[in-house]
């Protein structure tokens, strides 16, 4: 019962917040998504024997959640819209939206709960998840919530997080410069399918080339770090993460002379002897500097035509396919001989090498595999945005990806995906929307009552969630580390380690008292 | 046979550097020519690098102290220094002194700013230690590191807010995120000209003051750590926390003291940079912190003398790179040198290469 309230309430707060700030038909979408999630969580770790029992469990949390949604929808429709200065809606609409949300939440909770009673519950869950993912953009379009674009970005970052998880979570190599590989993947796509170098490659081939180049750089950048341990490794990867954007920013006028011949030319004072290799007539502009490469070719499929920036659907399904593929491959890798070698290295490098694991090969493969997936993500990103700039790939991106991995649960793929969803949803969906709503409230309800222009000015600049983005992010990290350092969905091995540490320490602490 | 292979490898690497180096400004014939033409510029850049390096070294000391004692990369340290600069600016702003006012008028604001900024940063650092790092002392290595990154984000955001507090500190100017100008209070007398030496090199009293303050702080810290009782306790805690506890050292207090000293140094560095560069911006902590951290690692993290050496090296390197290579590539060169040094000496320049115990 307690768990019921916790699940229904915890997700209920999120659902209510969503409905409050987004309004409209978002109640139906969020009720549908979170209802299923609540039904799943409610049955987690329980033996659900009958179809009816599961349905009952699921429907209870589903309808609790729905209650939150209904209240929030009414509040939004009758109160928040007025004080934030949005146009009023017909009297019936908030009721309709709220009740639809309630019904959908209850229904999807019930169905999810009932499915958990089946013998193959994992396949039932996966099937439902697949249906949900396939339907999502259509539902989103129908409900006019406009979340698909943010979800595509979310999936790109989840893919990056899954790749980083190989390096940090599986192999235990702390990489603080992972955005470098993202950049390499994106720029490779930029070079191979834009007018920058005059190559218009086919996206379906270029994406493989980008992954391969990223993997190659994973090995190249991984090689100098092989001897380093722990924090030194972290700082060298951070260094690479800083170098790569500088390189892309500055490769704008390349002119290469063959060094020996140019030395001879200088000594003999006959400049015509110097052998020019690249950029002889006009210095080669490889990366476009700060302005980046723009435009980049988009993928083309028969039947759909070229993917258009205005239509999110093909992009959504493409990144979905890539993500599912990545999830499948990484899952297989984790359970393979290589994956077990990574775990062994993470646990104890020395013991692993004594057991006959080739450290150099295994570590480099970890870097290469991690970089491969960021190469895919980078290629997709470049094609999707159709432009790339060096400023997109700086340190904060590496840190955000690392935070997704750690927030969700180091080493656990489900956790990493969850972490990615939470951080990206907060960053790309909730904060901008919240900022808009708060601004509306300020201008319509607060400012008429504030006389002092200085105070008004101060309020306008400081009550801005976008400005507080880093603060919220930092607080989340600190609190998360203190309350639950193993992440939201911890990896079994990692959690066992944590508890082992506690168990070992406890007697010592007692003795010292 | 093996020898030949490695010689061949080095030759290949050298050729590659000669081939690709000019893209990033490493055009050796040109550089040699420039140095031969005016060696004074080289000396000038060395001096600039020395002064900048001294400031970097002060920040690097904060990293190295903390790392030495609890093996934590305190990511928030660079941003703490940024907050120190903001605290100094706010303090100086209260005295309402103008650019280039006489030393007598500027002395009191500067001293007040030094005290306030150091105390503020020391307190803030101790708070961060108490609430963000101490609960994680027995957690896996990654947890306090992430916590420190979180604290760093919080500090950056606090800096952004602080910059928008025009109501309290008019000196902050209209735009919260824009760089703020710091009053130019240090006297700017060219020492070499005053001494009657005819040269194009300029070395002003401003440079000298910054250099002297930095050296005094570093020497003081060294004396403190090596010759006082709390310093001894710090070294003992760094070596073995449990043994130190058995010997009756209050480990928590000593760690808090370390954060206090590191924070005070960051505050002093914030003031120095404000006075030296005359501009303060909320993002400056990240770049400076990264350089300082690189300096600490370069010298061998945990080693106080190493941090000073690393700081000066990084300062000189970036000054030379700005002049002779290409200022756009300086960041890449700094990190490239770091990577190369760590690849050959994985423990830093003065760090010990600890043999792994089984």
Describe, in short, the structure shown.
The complex is a heterodimer of chains A (513) and B (358). Chain A has 513 residues and is mostly helical. Chain A is built from 19 helices and six strands.
Characterization of this structure:
The complex is a heterodimer of chains A (513) and B (358). Chain A is mainly alpha-helical and 513 residues long. Chain A has 19 helices and 6 strands. The radius of gyration of chain A is 26 Å and the shape is globular. Chain A starts with a helix and ends with a helix. Chain B has a two-stranded antiparallel sheet. The longest helix of chain B has 32 residues, at 39-70. With 358 residues, chain B is an all-alpha fold. Helices cover 72% and strands 1% of the residues of chain B. The chains are: A mainly alpha (513), B mainly alpha (358). Chains A and B meet through helix 9, strand 3, helix 10, helix 15 and helix 17 of A and helix 1, helix 6, helix 12 and helix 14 of B.
The major sheet of chain A is characterized as: 2 strands, antiparallel
What proportion strand of chain B? under 5%
What's the total number of strands of chain B?
2
Q: Going across the biggest sheet of chain A, name each strand in turn.
A: 1-2
Number of helices of chain B: 14
Binned strand content of chain A: under 5%
Low-confidence stretches of chain B: none
Shape of chain B: globular
Structural class of chain B: mainly alpha
| Helical residue percent band of chain B | over 70%
**Kindly state the mean pLDDT of chain A as a whole number?**
83
Radius of gyration of chain A using CA atoms only:
26 Å
């Amino acid at each position: 019962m307690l768990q019921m309230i916790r699940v229904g309430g915890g997700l209920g707060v999120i659902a209510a917040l969503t409905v409050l700030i987004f309004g409209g038909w978002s109640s139906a979408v969020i009720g549908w998504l979170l209802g299923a999630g609540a039904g799943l969580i409610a049955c987690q770790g329980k033996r659900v024997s009958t179809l009816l029992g599961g349905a009952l469990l699921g429907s209870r949390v589903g309808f609790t959640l729905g209650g939150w949604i209904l209240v929030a929808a009414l509040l939004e429709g009758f109160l928040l819209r007025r004080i934030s200065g949005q146009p009023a809606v017909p009297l019936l609409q908030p009721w309709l939206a709220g009740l639809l949300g309630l019904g959908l939440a209850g229904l999807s909770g019930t169905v999810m709960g009932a499915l958990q009673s089946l013998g193959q519950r994992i396949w039932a869950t996966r099937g439902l998840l697949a249906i949900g993912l396939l339907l999502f953009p259509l539902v989103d379009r129908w409900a006019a919530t406009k979340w698909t674009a943010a979800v595509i970005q979310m999936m790109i970052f989840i893919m990056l997080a899954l790749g980083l998880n190989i390096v940090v979570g599986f192999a235990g190599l702390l990489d603080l410069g992972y955005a470098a590989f993202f950049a390499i993947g994106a720029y490779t796509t930029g070079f191979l399918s834009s007018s920058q170098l005059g190559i218009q490659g086919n996206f379906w081939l270029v994406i493989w080339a980008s992954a391969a180049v990223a993997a190659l750089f994973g090995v190249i950048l991984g090689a100098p770090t092989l001897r380093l341990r722990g924090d030194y490794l972290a700082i060298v990867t951070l260094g690479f993460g800083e170098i790569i954007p500088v390189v892309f920013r500055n490769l704008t006028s390349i002119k290469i002379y063959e060094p020996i011949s140019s030395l001879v030319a200088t000594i003999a004072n006959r400049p015509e002897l110097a052998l020019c290799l690249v950029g002889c007539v006009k210095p080669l502009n490889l990366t476009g500097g700060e302005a980046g490469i723009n435009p980049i070719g988009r993928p083309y499929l028969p039947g759909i035509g070229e993917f258009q920036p205005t239509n999110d659907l093909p992009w959504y399904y493409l990144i979905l396919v890539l993500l599912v593929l990545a999830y499948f491959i990484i899952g297989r890798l984790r359970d393979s001989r290589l994956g077990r070698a990574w775990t062994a290295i993470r646990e104890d490098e020395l013991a692993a090498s004594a057991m006959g694991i080739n450290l150099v090969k295994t570590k480099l493969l970890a870097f290469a595999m991690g970089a491969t997936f960021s190469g895919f993500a980078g290629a997709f990103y470049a094609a999707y945005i159709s432009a790339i700039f060096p400023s997109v790939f700086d340190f904060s991106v590496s840190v955000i990806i690392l935070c997704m991995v750690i927030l969700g649960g180091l080493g656990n793929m489900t956790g990493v995906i969850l972490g990615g969803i939470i951080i990206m949803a907060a960053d790309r969906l909730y904060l901008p929307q919240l900022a808009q709503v708060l601004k509306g409230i300020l201008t319509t309800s607060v400012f008429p009552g504030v006389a002092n222009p200085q105070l008004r000015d101060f309020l306008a600049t400081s009550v801005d969630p976008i400005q507080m983005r880093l603060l919220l992010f930092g607080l989340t990290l600190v609190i998360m580390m203190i309350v639950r350092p193993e992440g939201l969905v911890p990896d079994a091995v990692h959690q066992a380690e944590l508890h082992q540490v506690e168990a070992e320490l406890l007697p010592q602490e007692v003795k010292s008292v | 046979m093996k020898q030949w292979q490695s010689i061949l490898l080095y030759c290949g690497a050298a050729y590659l550097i000669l081939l690709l180096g000019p893209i990033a400004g490493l055009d050796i014939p040109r550089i040699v020519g420039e140095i031969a033409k005016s060696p004074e510029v080289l000396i000038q850049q060395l001096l600039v690098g020395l002064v900048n390096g001294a400031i970097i070294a002060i920040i690097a000391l904060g990293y190295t102290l903390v790392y030495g004692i609890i093996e934590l990369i305190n990511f928030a340290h660079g941003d703490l220094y940024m907050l120190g600069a903001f605290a100094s600016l706010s303090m100086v702003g209260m005295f309402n002194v103008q650019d280039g006012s006489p030393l007598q008028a500027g002395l009191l604001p500067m001293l007040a700013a030094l005290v306030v900024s150091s105390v503020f940063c020391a307190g803030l650092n101790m708070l961060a230690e108490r609430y963000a790092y101490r609960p994680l002392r027995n957690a896996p290595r990654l947890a306090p590191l992430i916590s420190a990154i979180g604290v760093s984000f919080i500090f950056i955001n606090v800096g952004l807010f602080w910059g928008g507090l025009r109501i309290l500190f008019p000196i902050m100017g209209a735009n919260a995120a824009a760089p703020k100008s710091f009053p130019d209070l240090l006297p700017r007398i060219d020492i070499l000209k005053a001494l009657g030496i005819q040269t194009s090199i300029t070395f002003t009293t401003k440079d000298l003051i910054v250099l002297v303050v930095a050296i005094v702080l570093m020497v003081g810290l060294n004396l403190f750590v090596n010759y006082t009782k709390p310093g001894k306790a710090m070294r003992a805690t760094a070596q073995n926390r449990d043994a130190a506890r058995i010997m009756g050292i209050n480990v928590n207090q000593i760690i808090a003291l370390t954060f206090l000293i590191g924070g005070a140094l960051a505050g002093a560095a914030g003031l120095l940079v404000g006075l030296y560069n005359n501009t303060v911006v909320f993002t400056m902590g990240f770049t400076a912190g990264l350089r300082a951290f690189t300096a600490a690692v370069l010298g061998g993290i945990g080693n106080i003398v190493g941090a000073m050496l690393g700081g000066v090296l990084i300062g000189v390197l970036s000054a030379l790179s700005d002049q002779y290579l290409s200022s756009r590539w300086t960041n890449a060169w700094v990190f490239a040198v770091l990577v190369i040094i760590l690849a050959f000496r994985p423990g830093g320049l003065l760090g010990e290469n600890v043999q792994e115990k089984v």
